[in-house]
């Protein structure tokens, strides 16, 4: 199967995530997109965002992440922040997004903290 930017194959990544279970990539994509109660949280808890997005598919991730995030367990949601950042970057087209207009209405110290 294809390798991610880190050079890992699906077999390597799935073994890291699901131990000795051989999980076919198509089945994994299907179960994750359904928000399966073990496939989705296990993937988010153990895969890097690069691995998850590479195997799930960039376009699919961009469309599905808000719904998938809502289906996460509390434990997996603790790791979701890095996925949120990746999703925002993919949706926004980069890291240097223009802040909303109300950002400039905040007190200077609060803006400094956020930056």
Helices and strands in order:
Blueprint (H helix, E strand, L loop, with lengths): L9 H9 L6 H9 L5 H8 L2 H8 L1 H13 L3 H4 L2 H13 L15 H7 L1
Give a structural overview:
There is one protein chain. By secondary structure, the chain is mainly alpha-helical. The protein has helices spanning 10-18, 25-33, 39-46, 49-56, 58-70, 74-77, 80-92, 108-114. The mean pLDDT is 87.
Gist of the model:
The protein has 115 residues and is an all-alpha fold. The protein has helices at 10-18, 25-33, 39-46, 49-56, 58-70, 74-77, 80-92, 108-114.
* Number of discrete helical segments: 8
Largest sheet: none
First CA to last CA: what distance? Answer: 40 Å
Q: Enumerate the spans where pLDDT stays under 50 for 5 or more consecutive residues.
A: none
Pairing-aware structural class of the strands and helices?
Answer: mainly alpha
In one word, what is the shape? elongated
Indicate the percent of residues in helices.
55-70%
Number of strands: 0
> What average pLDDT do the residues reach?
87
Secondary-structure element sequence?
Answer: HHHHHHHH
Q: How large a portion of the residues is in β-strands, by DSSP E?
A: under 5%
Radius of gyration: 17 Å
Features:
single chain; elongated; 115 residues; mainly alpha; 0% strand
